[in-house]
Amino acid sequence: MTVASDTPARTAKRPNRLFKNLSAKIASIPMIITALFVFVGGTTWTVVYSFTGSRMLPKLQWVGLDQYDRLWTSDRWIISIKNLALYGFFSMILTLLIGFCLAACLDRKIRFESAFRTIFLYPFALSFVVTGLAWQWILNPDFGLQSLVRSTGWSTFTFDPLNNPDIVMFGLLIAGIWQGSGLIMCIMLAGLRGIDEDIWKAAKVDGIGTIKTYVVVIIPMMRPVFITSLVLIASGIIKLYDLVRAQTDGGPGIASEVPAKYVIDYMFQAQNLGQGFAASTMMLCSVVIILIPWAYLEFGGKKRG
Amino acid sequence: MTNSVEIRNLDLSFGAVEVLRNLNLDIQDGEFIVLLGSSGCGKSTLLNCIAGLLEVTAGQIFIKGQNVTWAEPSERGIGMVFQSYALYPQMTVRGNLSFGLKNAKIPKPEIEKRVARAAEILQIEPLLNRKPGALSGGQRQRVAIGRALVRDVDVFLFDEPLSNLDAKLRVDLRVELKRLHNQLQNTMIYVTHDQVEAMTLADRIAVMKGGNIMQLGTPDEIYNQPRNLYVADFIGSPSMNFISGNLESGVFKSGDLAMPMTGYDFMSQPVDRPVVIGIRPEHVVTGELVANAPLQFEANIDLVEPMGSDTLVYAQLGPENFRIRMDGQAKVKAGETIAIGIDPSRASLFDTKSEARL
Amino acid sequence: MTNSVEIRNLDLSFGAVEVLRNLNLDIQDGEFIVLLGSSGCGKSTLLNCIAGLLEVTAGQIFIKGQNVTWAEPSERGIGMVFQSYALYPQMTVRGNLSFGLKNAKIPKPEIEKRVARAAEILQIEPLLNRKPGALSGGQRQRVAIGRALVRDVDVFLFDEPLSNLDAKLRVDLRVELKRLHNQLQNTMIYVTHDQVEAMTLADRIAVMKGGNIMQLGTPDEIYNQPRNLYVADFIGSPSMNFISGNLESGVFKSGDLAMPMTGYDFMSQPVDRPVVIGIRPEHVVTGELVANAPLQFEANIDLVEPMGSDTLVYAQLGPENFRIRMDGQAKVKAGETIAIGIDPSRASLFDTKSEARL
Amino acid sequence: VELEVTHWWTSGGEAAAVAKFAEAWNATGNSWVDGAIAGSGGTARPIIISRILGGDPMGATQLNHGRQAEELIEAGLMLDLTDVAEAGGWKDIVNPSSLLDSCTLDGKIYCVPVNIHSAQWLWLSHDAYEAAGVPVPANWNEFVDSAPALQEAGIVPLAMGQQGWQQNLAFGAITIAVAGLDAWREVTVNKNADVARGPEYTAVFEAVAAARELARDSNVQDWNEATNMVITGKAGAQLMGDWAQGEFSVAEQVEGQDYSCLPGLGLNEILDTGGDAFYFPVNDDPEITAAQKELAALLISPEVQVSFNLAKGSLPVRGDIDMAAANGCMQKGLGILATGGILPSGDMALSADTQTQIEDLMAQFWSSDMPAAEAQEKYAALIESAD
Amino acid sequence: MADPATLNAAVAAGAMVGPAGPKPKRRFSRANIFLYGTLIMVSMYYLLPLYVMIVTSLKGMPEIRMGNVFGPPMEITFQPWVKAWAEACTGLDCTGLSKGFWNSVQILIPSVFLSIAIASINGYALSNWKFKGSEVFFTILIIGAFIPYQTMLYPIVIMLREIGLMGDLWGLVLVHTVFGMPILTLLFRNYFSSVPEELFKAARVDGAGFWQIYFQIMLPMALPIFVVAIILQVTGIWNDFLFGVIYTKPETYPMTVQLNNIVNSVQGVKEYNVNMAATLLTGLVPLIIYFASGKLFVRGIAAGAVKG
Ligand SMILES: Nc1ncnc2c1ncn2[C@@H]1O[C@H](COP(=O)(O)OP(=O)(O)OP(=O)(O)O)[C@@H](O)[C@H]1O
Ligand SMILES: Nc1ncnc2c1ncn2[C@@H]1O[C@H](COP(=O)(O)OP(=O)(O)OP(=O)(O)O)[C@@H](O)[C@H]1O
Ligand SMILES: [Mg+2]
Ligand SMILES: [Mg+2]
Q1: Which domain covers residue E131, as residue numbers?
Q2: Which of chain A's residues have a Cβ under 8 Å away from the Cβ of D42?
Q3: Based on CB atoms within 10 Å of each CB, which residue in A147, A224, C9, C147 is the most buried?
Q4: E121 and E184: one domain?
Q5: What confidence tier does B189 reach under pLDDT thresholds 50, 70, 90?
């Protein structure tokens, strides 16, 4: 056979690339619109308008960094940030700790595992509004925990976090952790189950105790799971709003204000859109600060198809 | 006393599933024992019982004469190497090697000495400061062996240590492992389902099936005098040729075929009964040598597989398929008819019913 | 026209990574071609290009004389069988077989006829109404082959179809596949990294390395006349013995060793230069036959691996390691010294620099 | 015609008052679709505004009049009611006229004031004082003096809902009582920060700090819960607007017998005239536009004014109607109104933005131990930057 | 340890001397007591709110005022439940949660369907039909999952207004679809990526196109992940408050917003029993869904999240 690439029958034209996988492209249109218009467009719009003096209606009336200046001199914002930092710190640590410990307990081949797992996970199915109200009721000093303990005879016992500005964030934490730790437990459990059985055997042969194995061997191996959990927790923390609204509404005073609430209050209640946009831009920045290292660890480190 | 590991009447069940049944095994000091069997036959389970990673349901285990049935794995004087390596991924190779020792509160200089020695034996000195993630499969497996080595144990347990490696590396590490055993002279118990590994490594092979040991013997015994039909069929690739027939006063008969079993080493006085005869493909002689064979047949060639070093021929011998291993240079073609010869003294005879060797 | 598949100047890159580079390959009608190479050399990539599952970067592909470079996979007249079987898990075997036909809008009775025929050829009739989950590995692979079979294609593409099966089954299916090819006489392109499979199945083998075809030839050529050092080393297990030295007017010299290359079939007039000589382990003769060998040496046995049908001996020949394959009945021990013989006409000589066969 | 009306009147008394509007409107053959949004105006406003901006306007909506709707009007989103107002002669009947002024932008009228609310009231529980064995005080100063007695009896002296707007309201009331009208006007209307830093305001902040101590044990959030504490005698007093009257009425308490009310905290016979107004977002449908105008006229009609304000406990926006049925507290208010003791509401003087900032400050001040001087300085800074 | 010699003799005699069989264990070892103790204690913390809500919702107001949230009701009454469902007021509107419930149902069904349909197709396209730029869009989408909603609230108000869906149930459906997309797409993409690529290739060779492969091959295989997605979306959308409060109007308020309104519309004293009944009613749907399919959920979360 002669090589006949020049005969017409044997040359075929390369089809237009644009129409390749056309169905896939059409099917992706909703995603593209969402990504471009809502996420990129919406965010950009907000950032742009945070440099304006918009009040009730968005107006392109430039005021430079005024909104940011004011933001960072506002007590409420500072308190919100501090609260969020406090809540975030403890929520991350405690949720991870509780989630991991519970997962480790459940991983010990115990009886009734699925019952316990269900108990730990069910709060996740409830909304923050429900969570907030339930805990508001339990923490009510006149009827709830405090009065229960007092009725046992310890009459000076005081535990009313929702009315004490100093510890109100812990009142929120109790509820937040109650709601969120189950999911983390679930993820950790899956992570633990994914660890090669042989590692446990190797550690046993090496004579390493159970707890030490967890701390020295297993936890470092679960790094990706911890990172996933951390990102999940962190993204939830930044959005913290519903719980505060339902449980304390920022009170007492402004002791439990959080940034998300600041944004919404200023955008809609105080009718100072510019201020709200500036605050939400700050929130965006903090998310970016969290996301970049994560994205780097997750996607930058190892290249996968 | 010469027994390194003794297993007495071992039973093991997972819930209702009996995996090991009244198993007995004596392993001598310095012996290289291979547990061979198809998947799910209980090899790993037995190994884990010896290591103390599974609690026995009944029976006893002795290591170096000590009853270790209730002892912790770390107290049994064993080291174990896993198929998946099971290295601690976040520790360096040095950390992996020394972790167990540190935990046993062994003084630092001693640890260093032992790590250095193991690294030297296994030639992994340049890798000591790397993490397992930065090692190739073969290097990882060497580190895993090292982890057992540093613990100065009496008994090494290997659970399919080479299964995750590619063919070439497997051969290399197999040879290395054999050399290591020659050098250390420790007792080694090695689980595999690869018969080549078993044949080449073992001092003795225990062929297992369904939680029982079918035959325990040297590779030569196992290969040439399989105790029963299962072992005969399981060992060897391509597998043994079997022909069913009857033993009639020392003559094997199957259809037109009549083969006097002169020269066959009967285990007891032969009794007439239905039997199966087994002949290994490479014990079928061809070419000029046929003339010398006690028995000669004609066979139709069905398919030829050249394998380089030798050639496999699939032939038709009467109604039976017959596999013949020939020289790599043999020039035969499908469709030809060739003369083949069989030497009954190299064949194996099994009782059809009990499947035991006669 | 006799070419079934032609590949012209094929390039394929994943982004910056060039996987295939200016590759040319002609496959004749009815030929069984095996693409052999180590992992990552581009075998699957080439197969996927032929199937149309990867878009080529440059070059052309012809099937049955048609330029199919831009055609859809289903329009190319190919059927493909994958390592992981890739059966549609929620469909029955019958559904799996007929899915492609239904897509092609073939009338129902015709579909049924074809499925029945494929099922008969592959002996999977009793399985037709089961789902893949209820099949064994070998049965699944048969169904996967059936899926290509029903489509009445010109070219079958196999991507390591037997790698997921256990050793015994692999051998059986290999033989079946060979029989199938004999029966159908289709063109088959088969990817593997198992040389035994390649040697036994192929009409011609293409040994690949780094996206290039190193040698294309019959199994016999590949095994006995490897075109370069890579092929020589890659093919054969255990691998070829290599000794570096110099060619000096037709005599191979290395240290004390001097070996006149009488009888060696030089590809061109030999010129003096540094060379590497390669001798296959089974071409080293031992025992009584040594006397007939043109060259005789003494070697120290280092390690013996009995493998049943034959015995591998690792020996020391001067400073070099030397692998020797002996009969399964050979009784040799580590530490012994034996006489060995080499026939230069069965050796291979390579230029040290270009690594090409002389 | 169906008109959806949004508002945040959800407490017992408020709901009863809205019902009067609804009844009247339904009586005209139209139908009132109630769009109550729970929570304070702070919760409801964003929803209302986002709906108007989002192109899904309701038929009518409550908003505090004043500066809250300014931008919506400027953006042309609110219905011009000038023709209705002229037809009804609102200019003449609305009293005080400042109410209408705050509905007016560029000479056009955009809202219907429906009531007057004043914030400077002190509500006192007779039960509580009886339990403490001291007479019911007659003004703020007496109340402060009587506080220790209440505390001894285990009664919270001052009930205070822990929400910024309530605390700000209390602050405003105390300011007028302590610093006087001029200082208040100078700061709130003219935004004079110097006065806010001055001695009058120092006294105010100290008074508030003192009040803060009296409210220490008050753990409620919503204003009506605080009112309920007064009703049930758990607290001695509450600083709340005249709408608290509604709660007392619902609880069937009688002024002078079960509780007392002191406008201007019993110190100044003066009330601010905040209040609620209804706005009508522009709608494309002419039928709805007509109905909106009809409703606007209805809301300010004499009968509706009477029934509504009686239920709500607020004062009517027109001086020409008979409020004889009103109870004692309302009568007191009407009296002050008649004598002209009025001042504009903070809502009208300060933008929502400034208002929110001040509320935040108050919330912080009331619920922490912030020293009075610090709060004063922060307050002055807010006034300084107010627009 | 016994003297080896005697021991050997014993073994030779076939007798079992020394430890044999399983190691004897105390039924309540210290580790077990600790383990189960911890689990039970922690379980109490998790169960407490549910218990309190149920108990409170079954009490009458007088009993509640007497204190002790934790005591069981002396006299069980279902009045609070009735009231919460049908009578509780927000302003004039005294229809309880029932209207919110039906609104939520009306929002839920199309949102769940739409968001899952779109996300599964996206995930499928992203894992099997990559085209130039598809990864970029996906990355944006994923980052979008972590952007605080606050930055997008207002622009969405404008967008909804432009397409005329502000305040409409369908507007909220759209918002839920948009915000559900990142996580669901990730979930489906991870799942479809774990489906062997060869299966996809085989279908291509068999002549199946984009939709055929989706409907005939991928969809039937993706059932477990669909279950997970459904649970996630049902609970997520049902529990949403922020979007419900901003993008709807009172007639279309979902149940959570209605709940918040009822709880915050205090008339006189807070009716804790009604509030708790309302709270429970609101949580009922996701709880039922969750309890009914908890196992699948757990498995799916593991599959979707850990691989992520
Ligand atoms: N934890 C367990 N629970 C129940 N059955 C088990 C468990 N572990 C193993 N088995 C069963 O015990 C039998 C023996 O398993 P084992 O792992 O010892 O096989 P194996 O010979 O090592 O096989 P392989 O070659 O596949 O590793 C199998 O049938 C297996 O199903
Ligand atoms: N999608 C991809 N993107 C980037 N590189 C790829 C991709 N697929 C394959 N490669 C690279 O192309 C090279 C050839 O891959 P290919 O799968 O063809 O190897 P192979 O010979 O089939 O190996 P194996 O025997 O392991 O299947 C490898 O180096 C691989 O890393
Ligand atoms: Mg095993
Ligand atoms: Mg491949």
Answers
A1: 97-306
A2: 265, 269
A3: C147
A4: yes
A5: very high
Q: Are residues E201 and E55 in the same domain?
A: no
Q: Which of B198, B284, B211 is nearest to B241 (CA)?
A: B284
Q: Establish if E289 belongs to a structural domain.
A: yes
Cis peptide before D96 (omega within 30 of 0): yes
- The domain defined by A66-301 folds into MetI-like fold (1.10.3720)
DSSP-assigned states of every residue in E14-74: T---SS-SSPP--TT-HHHHHHHHHHHHHHHHHHHHHHHHHHHHTS-HHHHHT--SSSPPS
pLDDT in tens, B5-25: 999 999 999 888 889 989 999
Return the ∠ at Cα E46 (arms to E107 and A186), rounded to 5°.
Answer: 70
Q: Please give the Cα distance from D85 to D70 (Å, whole number).
A: 19
Q: Number of residue pairs across A and E with CB atoms under 8 Å?
A: 273
Token pair of E255, please? Answer: 């149940």
Query: Within this chain, do residues E69 and E109 fall inside the same structural domain, yes or no?
Result: no
Q: Is residue C108 pLDDT above 90, yes or no?
A: yes
Same domain? For E247 and E207 the reply is: yes
Q: What are phi and psi of D80, to 5 degrees?
A: -80, 120
Say if the ipTM goes beyond 0.85: no
Please identify, among E43, E76, E109, the residue that sits at the C-terminal boundary of a domain.
E76
How far apart, in Å, are the Cα atoms of C105 and each of C97, C108, C111, D147, E207?
14, 9, 10, 93, 10
The reply to whether E105 and E242 lie within a common domain is yes
Tell me the Ramachandran region of residue B40: left when phi exceeds 0, alpha when psi lies from -120 to 50, beta otherwise.
Answer: left
CA-closest candidate to residue D366, choices D206, D169, D167, D157: D167
pLDDT band, very low/low/confident/very high, at E8 (cuts 50, 70, 90): very low
Locate the domains of chain A by residue range.
Answer: 20-50, 66-301
E142 and E255 belong to one structural domain: yes
The amino acid sitting at D206 is E
Partner residue opposite E269 with nearest CB, options D6, D7, D228: D228
User: What atom of ligand 1 comes closest to residue B193's alpha carbon?
Assistant: 25
Establish if E253 belongs to a structural domain: yes
Q: Which of C121, C183, C179, C130 is nearest to C150 (CA)?
A: C121
Residue from E146, E142, E107, E152 nearest E122 by CA: E142
Lowest mean pLDDT among A138-152, B210-224, C76-90, E220-234: A138-152
Same-domain check for residues E155 and E291: yes
What lies within 8 Å, CB to CB, of A102 at 6+ separation is: A120, A181, A185, A188, E39, E42
Task: Tell how far the Cα of B265 is from the centroid of ligand 3, in angstroms.
Answer: 36
CB A253 within 8 A of CB A165: yes
Least CA distance to E21: which residue of chain B?
Answer: B58
CATH code of the domain covering residue E221: 1.10.3720.10
Among protein residues, the one with the nearest Cα to ligand 2's atom 26 is: C39
CB contact under 8 Å between B166 and C39, yes or no, is: yes
C47 CB near ligand 2 (under 6 Å): no
* pLDDT value at A1 more than 70: no
Q: Which token pair is A140?
A: 């009510």
All structural domains of chain B, each given as residue ranges with its CATH number in brackets, are: 3-234 (3.40.50.300), 241-351 (2.40.50.140)
Question: Are residue E251 and residue E294 in the same domain, yes or no?
Answer: yes
* Domains of chain E: total: 2
In this structure, chain B runs to a length of: 358
For residue A300, is pLDDT > 80?
no
Task: Please report whether residue E17 resides in a domain.
Answer: no
Question: Above 50 in pLDDT, residue B92?
Answer: yes
Q: How many residues are listed for chain A in this entry?
A: 305
The two structure tokens encoding residue A14: 């390369």
pLDDT digits (tens, 9 = 90+) for E127-171: 888 877 788 888 888 878 778 888 888 888 888 888 877 777 888
Token couple for B224 = 């040439």
SS3 D154: coil
